[in-house]
Design goal:
single chain, about 160 residues, alpha+beta, eight-stranded mixed beta sheet, 5 helices, 8 strands
């Protein structure tokens, strides 16, 4: 199913979500912060997860507190491919040795400013979609069309 989360357009299979990317280890799979994470989510934010087919109860949450701001971070893998990406992100991927210029043949590149990139949010929840090679060098991710997309969520709660 194709979803547009401007500037990202992704084509994902919501029936085959990978809830626990064991080979992508930027976060511990800590569930102790999950109740607090869930209590902060709005209905619109919950709908975002549901639309993607993600069971929130299975997510690991990384928690930080900084200057009276609670920050919750999680990520998960989706099966699918990119249709469009922001130009700044594409430039990063062009510098990865495994990809080369084939990226430019496969996606629409969206030009926007860094300030516009900060608009990828639903209220106090920022989201982004990234190629899994950013987090794991496993061979399965060493080609552009590897069949996976990593979604990163940062939720802020101001005390």
């Amino acid at each position: 199913m194709i979803y547009n989360f401007y500037p990202y357009t992704i084509d994902i299979d919501t029936k085959h979500i990978i809830d626990f990317p064991h080979d992508i280890t930027i976060l511990d799979k800590d569930k102790s912060s999950l109740p607090q994470f869930k209590s902060i989510l709005t209905d619109e934010q919950m709908s975002f997860f549901k639309k993607l087919g993600v069971d929130i109860n299975k997510l690991g949450i990384d928690y930080h507190s900084y200057n009276n701001i609670e920050i919750f971070e999680t990520h998960f893998l989706l099966r699918g491919k990119f249709i469009s990406l922001p130009e700044l992100q594409v430039k990063t991927y062009l510098n990865i040795e495994y990809f080369g210029k084939e990226i430019l043949n496969d996606i629409n590149v969206i030009s926007l400013s860094e300030n516009d990139m900060n608009k990828n949010r639903i209220g106090n929840m920022q989201y982004s979609f990234k190629h899994p090679i950013i987090y794991s060098n496993k061979q399965i991710y060493q080609k552009w069309n590897c069949g996976y997309i990593c979604c990163v969520i940062i939720l802020k709660n101001y005390k």
